[in-house]
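TL;DR need structure tokens for one chain.
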Amino acid sequence: MKVVFMMLYAIALATGGVFLLWKPAAYQRWTLRAYEKNPKAAKYNPFLDWMKSDSYLLVVRLVGVLCLVMAILLLIWGIAAALR
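>> reply
TL;DR here they are.
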């Protein structure tokens, strides 16, 4: 059962990673729109100005790559555990 959960988590990570690599600007718009809807939360976010910059998109892509790497490692680990 543990292997099934590892595989499902790997699929979720891979899906998130692909989305962050494919559409980082959509993720940026979504997060900024959330802060526009809730200005009280925006005053507690010290990174809000940075989130509007191009360097934020680079970091979002980096997080996407890390998600994909973790998904691949989890898949390898899950397959190895299933074959034991």
